[in-house]
Amino acid sequence: MPAISSKKPYRVGRSRTGLGLFATKPIKKGTKIVRYFGPLLDSRKKKDDAIENKYLFELNGRWTIDGSVRKNIARYINHACKPNAESDVKPRKRKVVIRAIKNISPGEEINYDYGTDYFKAYLKPIGCKCDACEKRRKKKRAEARAERLRLKARAQKKAEKKALKEAEKQAAKPRKEKLEQKPKLELKPKPNGAGVQQNGKLANGRHMNGSHSNGHDRSRAAAQKSAAARPITATRLGTTATAVDLDQQASA
Ligand SMILES: [Zn+2]
To answer: Which of 37, 113, 154, 205 has the fewest Cβ atoms within 10 Å of its own Cβ atom?
Structure first.
């Protein structure tokens, strides 16, 4: 880092994009901060015109300051879209001075607007990292996040509504289901069910148990499935109760 006299109201320090120039003392609005300094390039000379770097400061059609020299402290000043300083160009004197356009407090980074050409060529492709642009991006991200949450909440509400509707639809069903299932149950030898079933178990238990319990497993699985998908409602309790009924009857 370049050595800067402590009499100067600034120092070079770490900034968001690398190095930057920071105020070390209060700088009053309107005062000159530092000169943008470097050899003058004449665009009419082939050798001068061939020089290309990020620190060229065009004064007019003919003259350009090559600010890439280390002695040019002003080259550490970063661009900002809402700066606290400006480049005061005096083409006739072939001089550029960086001047405060706001009161700058110690610790604050000094910035000026590099201009549209520089912005388009160097900053736009990589995204400007100045405070104003970062703030704008942050705001945009927050807005996008809020929008995502809003959409998510809406989808959730919609799903809940759908589930409720489904539940209401199911609430009308259980009686019908019971009626449909009844004949199946009647296939079981009910009058002295326990005895017969025991007999069945002894004689041919595998087959009987197998077929019955398979059926119950299916209905239980269905009840569990619907229980997972739907909020707790009368319907779910209804179906579960049916399943339990079936189980009890099966094991009775
Ligand atoms: Zn910016």
So the answer is: 154
C-alpha angle 43-46-50 in degrees, rounded to nearest 5: 80
How far, in Å, is the centroid of ligand 1 from the Cα of 133? 4
The pTM of this model reads 0.61
124 Cα: distance to centroid of ligand 1 (angstroms): 9
- For ion ligand 1, residues whose CB falls within 5 Å: 81, 128, 130, 133
Residues 6+ apart with CB under 8 A from 99: 30, 31, 32, 33, 85, 86, 87, 88
Position 197: which residue type? Answer: Q
Distance from Cα 121 to the centre of ligand 1, integer Å: 13
What pLDDT, in 10s, does the model give residues 181-223? 555 555 555 555 444 444 444 444 444 444 444 444 444 544 4
Residue 112 backbone dihedrals phi, psi, to 5 degrees: -140, 165
